[in-house]
Design goal:
Helix content is 43%, strand content 17%. It has a 3-stranded mixed beta sheet with strand order 1-3-2. It has a 3-stranded parallel beta sheet with strand order 4-7-8, sandwiched between helices. β7, α5 and β8 form a beta-alpha-beta unit. α3 packs across α6. It is globular.
Length: 226
């Protein structure tokens, strides 16, 4: 039986990097630690193309007392970090499972049936609204052998399965906002996109620092002595 888990994230000004609270509490396995490092790599590769990205974030599996391992939550963790930076809420009626590599490609996971059925039971307890569902790796479609109750709910469009192959697809499903693509010619993300907002947030501190240094350089020797 797949037990749904709530993951939270906070971002703030501080030493750049993603702090894995589970690791600090000795509750995180090697595979999960590796997954967090991959998230850091993806974020830097996408948002630090021209200058370092100023991101300090903490991620945590709330009320986890037995430990966490594996990389099945990396897709959810990455979307969560991005939504927190952009201050864009995530639809809590959608469950997420999936591994992510350094290129943002979603990779298959194990126990997909148990995870979908476990989240379905949670949604059913709260009352199905027709907007509930699960995001899963596209490679796991062939592994689906869901019980009759879940299949009937899907047929009635009370519950949904969304297969994805890229981080951007999952992000857009969870937030309803267009992720945006990097424009090589203009060296920026599409204007008005979520990733454009994230890019600006991550480089805001650097831009402010540069502006301050520029103003200092313009000051005359007399002003400096004062």
């Amino acid at each position: 039986f797949g037990v749904p888990t709530r993951i939270t994230c906070r971002t703030y000004k501080g030493k750049p990097g993603i702090l894995n609270i589970e690791r600090d509490a000795s509750l995180s396995g090697k595979l999960h630690n590796k997954g967090v490092s991959i998230l850091t790599s993806w974020i830097n590769a996408n948002f630090a193309k021209k200058s370092p990205a100023n991101i300090a974030a903490t991620i945590c599996f709330e009320q986890n007392y037995n430990g966490v391992d594996g990389d099945s939550a990396t897709l959810a963790e990455l979307c969560l970090i991005l939504s927190t930076i952009a201050n864009i809420p995530i639809d809590q009626g959608i469950g997420v499972t999936g591994s992510v590599n350094q290129f943002g490609e979603v990779q298959p996971i194990g126990g997909v049936n148990e995870k979908v059925e476990g989240f379905f039971k949670t949604c059913k307890l709260h009352g199905l609204t027709g907007r509930h569902g699960c995001i899963i790796p596209v490679q796991n479609i062939k592994h689906l052998m869901l019980n009759r109750e879940v299949r009937e709910a899907i047929e009635k469009e009370q519950f949904h399965i969304w297969p994805v192959s890229k981080v951007e697809e999952a992000f857009e499903l969870l937030t309803g906002f267009h992720a945006g693509h990097w424009d090589e010619k203009r060296s920026r993300f599409e204007e008005g996109s979520a990733f454009d907002k994230i890019y600006k947030m991550l480089h805001q501190k650097s831009d402010e620092k540069k502006a301050k240094e520029k103003s200092v350089k313009k000051r005359s020797p007399l002003e400096k002595r004062k």
